[in-house]
Amino acid sequence: MKKDPEQSESGIVNPTFYQELAEDRISIEATEGTTGTDQASALPQLTITRPVYQQEQLNDAYRYRKPKRTKLHHELTDRVRQIDSKTCCSTVFPLLTWLPEYSWSRDLVRDLVSGCTVAVMHIPQGIGYALLANVPPVVGIYMAFFPVLVYFLFGTSRHNSMGTFAVVSIMVGKTVLAYTGTTAEDGESEEQRTALQVATAVGFVVGIMQLIMCLCRLGVISFLLSDTLVSGFTTGAAIHVVTSQIKDLLGLTLPSVGSMFEIIKTYIEIFRQITSVNWAAIIISAITIVVLVFNNEYLKVAKRSVIPIPIELIAVIAGTLLSKYLELQEKYAIKTIGNIPTGLPAPSLPDFSLMPSIIIDSFPVAMVGYTVSVSMALIFAKRENYEIGFNQELFAMGAGNVVGSFFSCFPFAASLSRSSIQYSVGGRTQIASVISCGLLAIVLLWVGPFFEPLPRCVLSGIIVVSLKGLLMQVTQLKGFWRQSPIDGIVWVLTFLSVVAFAIDIGLLVGIVLSICCIFFRSLKPYTCLLGNVANTDIYLDTSRYQGLIEYANIKIFHYCGALNFASRAAFKNRLCDTLGINLTEEIKRRKQPDWKPSSAGEQSLKFLILDFTSLTSIDPSAIGTFKAMVREFELLQVTILTAGCQPPVVDNFLRCGLIGDIEKPYCRLFTTVHDAVQHARSELDPIGSSSGNGSTISTITGII
Fold first, then answer.
1. Whole domain around residue 409: which residue ranges?
2. What PANTHER family does the record point to (predicted)?
């Protein structure tokens, strides 16, 4: 027996009516019907009978209320109460979470082997990357000691090998070249600023920036650097590193060419001096590169040894011995490393007067170092099933850079090659880094002067070969382009900007392009017209599916994305283009006194249903435009209905007065698209509708 809706004195349907009706009329019947397509005819069918709900009626029926937000001081108080001393200590010192579970019998041996292997890699890479940063070679070994110990205490990654990193080193090297030399301030006496003073000042500023980012909870800001951007940027930076090593590979001495257009200027200088190359340096460089490539491409691939052969250290020791006993520097003018002091550096304050000048140069260093380190940490954490704290990583790296700047260190980061080796040989925790630091302390205290005769061309060969992984990232361009041409364009433009202009300019270009991609993609959301699958409440894209039902006088427009001040105009234009209507011109034409429909099609559209099930957000500016658009369509005698809005969107509609008055709202809002279609059909054919006042019964038949 059909129920009639009970109405209150104000004319609004009693909310309890819908609850009772839903309880009485919802039924699920499994039958052997033959409705639907041939493929689905043998499947059991589902029939649901329920009221047609407007959103406000459903809210009243089921007493919708917006969750109350906890006041800020209450929220902070609750958080403080939940923190105990143990939680606080484990958050600040993440090693307290894994150290109690550490198996000294099983894991210590793996960490010992891993630590010794990584320590061996630290020596040649530290010396070589220090030269990239234009600072004394021993600084690279300092960076494998002081910042690493700080990271051991505060870092959350158990497998990252921290220390020198090629890209960061060359970025610091650009700043060192720009600010090293004789300076005068305010006409006073001139003073000589050393490369180490500039590098340590950069390290201190980078550390302070990372600590400030940690306090502001900006750990996730690294995700502004997309995989496409990082790939293009690091590949371009690798080109810079290779270019910077060519002078040592050829035994040339090149003048400073500045940071802008550096690669182009460097190659111009190389070709000018090509007749002055040192053939002895070329031969040594070629032998070093061939031996390293043979080891990496044949021995490692063939897995001839369980423990990786420390070929870089072997090359360093062999080059040092040959240079010393064959007197390569005296007889063939081979450039060597030079003085390497013994002992640990005495703590000293960075040059604070330089810091205001290097803030802009330090920011990309802070971002790149943190992003690369977190990216590597996430890879290992996913493999080993543990969590990474983004803000804690900022704190660990910031503290490491600040402490390191007092001990002659420039900014540190995770090394891609060393981290991979540390993990592949079985390293379990950062105890491997502590073991590595212990071995490097011996080198710093007693062994350092042994490497003074080492030819620079040997180190250049080691650096160039180690960059193969970064250089081969160029092969990723094809994949990025296949996934999205826009991503491919970002990669190409970022790479070209880094190579053609400068590293920091390229990073800025890449970030701007990535943000622009997000912006422009939001301006081109997915939209379509929907049609109904027969005997169901399913609505699909008419341009992608065939056999759909499109009801006369009704159009259903689906919008996927956000509506805001930036996208509101694009939304309106896309809607009008899809419907084939020039809204402004059509309104002007219909306002003319002699206007008459030129065809029956001009008056065919009566209801426009906007499917907002995928509308993520809407702001007041977009709602204002939406109100005006509703009134414009009313002038064309077209009623707009909205459907499927999420609760936050509905709340914004209520606050801005788009809905709320059931009797005369700007537009009616329905729970689902099918409810809106049923309402529109009942308005177009009131005789055939089950009831009025929005309580039409909807019968839906679909396949189980």
1. 107-181+193-470
2. SULFATE TRANSPORTER
